[in-house]
């Protein structure tokens, strides 16, 4: 992971305490589009839309700089 991917990873890791987390820059290295896959107990009882809103709220300052985000969320089984 590059520094910016690690920064995004650390933000999500602190806030959501994920069981699994993957952050990838899919913009070719310019940091404008990311793919994030996250599994967390914090998603229990939340619909997929609410899970995505939670992640978007946590990353709102970063997302405002991006062109796109591919997001996969899953509650821990």
UniProtKB/TrEMBL annotation:
Superkingdom, natural source: Eukaryota
InterPro entries, alphabetized: BolA, BolA-like_sf, Mt_Fe-S_assembly_factor
Signal peptide residues on this chain, from the entry's feature table: none
A UniProt-annotated Pfam family: BolA
GO CC terms: mitochondrial matrix
Entry-linked PANTHER family: BOLA-LIKE PROTEIN 3 (PTHR46188)
Family the entry assigns: Belongs to the BolA/IbaG family.
Name recorded for this polypeptide: DEKNAAC101386
